Amino acid sequence: MLSYLQAPLLFGLIAASVTTVGLVIVARRATWTERNASIFGLAAAGMLATLAFLHIIPEAFHLSQQAPVWLAAGFFGGLLLHNAVALLFPERPGRKPVNIAFTPIIAIASHSFIDGIIYAVTFANSFESGLYASLGLILHEFPEGVIAFAIMKRAGVSNMKAFWIAFLAAAATTPAGALVSAPIMFMLEPELLGALFAMSAGLLLFVATGPLMAPLKETRPARGLGAIAAGVVAAMVIFLAPIHGGHHHDMNTVHDDDHDHAPGMDQPDFSRM
Question: Which InterPro entries does the annotation name (predicted)?
Answer without folding.
Answer: ZIP
